Amino acid sequence: MKLVIEPVRSKRRSVIEITSDIYPKLAQILEDNYHSRKVLLIIDQTVFAIYDKEISQPFAESSLQQTFFKIPGGEATKSVDYLLKGYKKLIENNFSRDDLIIAIGGGTVGDLAGYLASTYQRGISYIQVPTTLLAQIDSSVGGKTAINYQNKKNVIGSIYHPDQVLIDLKFLETLTNRDFNSGLGELIKYALLDNNFYHLLNKSCAEIIKRNDFNQQLLSEVIYQALRIKNNYVRFDQDDFGKRRMLNLGHTLGHALESYTDFKDYRHGEGVIIGIVFAAYISLKENRLSSTKFDEILSLIKKFNFDFNLPKKLDVSKIIELMKSDKKVRSGKINFILLKDIGEPFVTDQLTEEKISDYLEDLKCLKLV
Ligand SMILES: NC(=O)c1ccc[n+]([C@@H]2O[C@H](COP(=O)([O-])OP(=O)(O)OC[C@H]3O[C@@H](n4cnc5c(N)ncnc54)[C@H](O)[C@@H]3O)[C@@H](O)[C@H]2O)c1
What is the CA(110)–ligand 1 centre distance, in A? Predict the structure, then answer.
């Protein structure tokens, strides 16, 4: 399955392909488009340990000069430290603007590699090979790249599209359940942004969460639909000032929870799910979402077995401070994406800090499971 993302105001376009034969495909792309160039392979160490032989194969047969940069997956990798190590590799190996970076890993490796690619010599080409569910349905496309700094999530970043995104479902077989579920968090977000996708996910969740016997066809369709929805939001608003902001559903609280725990306690998708429940709860309390729809949303999330209760000890004032320092803040106001209905998100900056704080206190006491 192939999807071409052409953001309206950008010269760069991404070709996204879901394939079951990634290595010959990659070899072909390298030979056709990047013949005799240098390639920096930024690869998740865990992924390399599992897929070492297969991954090395297309490069062994190509005319490219390769340099490996193996890094750990996880939030700590999205750091100035690893960014500087990346520049060092590029400079020491004399990379120039017509060379190439390939990111093979989850969203953290992809975000770091994308930012490195966008800033080295004002931008060199890169290819994403996402190996987690979250990266396959979300982070590898749309061009957002970022690192964290001073405990602030994605505070340094750019919008820079990869030339190609190659998605192979085989990588998902070796993900831990926790990392697979984290991807489901973002998948549920897409379901709440698109009514048709909501019905598809609702109908097929039992099949999707079966880990030992993937339904490849269904999962390909689900990934394709998620990317199609993302594309619809990104295409006309790649700079993230309008429609694209709806993709931040669940992220105002999600990012704050990640920062609150020094990126240690929550996977990205786990924070997003709690954030989605909070956004739905605010929507209900502000009389924008009916109680029937609120229950429907909770029931979908429950089907995926998420724990979405807030910790009782959560310091709400600290969470508010973190939300205020998030890059989604405009004119000093905290922004939330709320829901009028499934498939009808909207943005608001009209909630006072007192209200947000009260709703967070409510959610701490409510046992929703
Ligand atoms: N750029 C964007 O538009 C965008 C969108 C959503 C999320 N994100 C970012 O994505 C990041 C989260 O990405 P993630 O969930 O992929 O986390 P991750 O990159 O940390 O990967 C999760 C874990 O899975 C391991 N792993 C990766 N592939 C594997 C495989 N095939 N088999 C076994 N283990 C594997 C990694 O080593 C890591 O331990 C966050 O930093 C988030 O901010 C970015």
Answer: 8
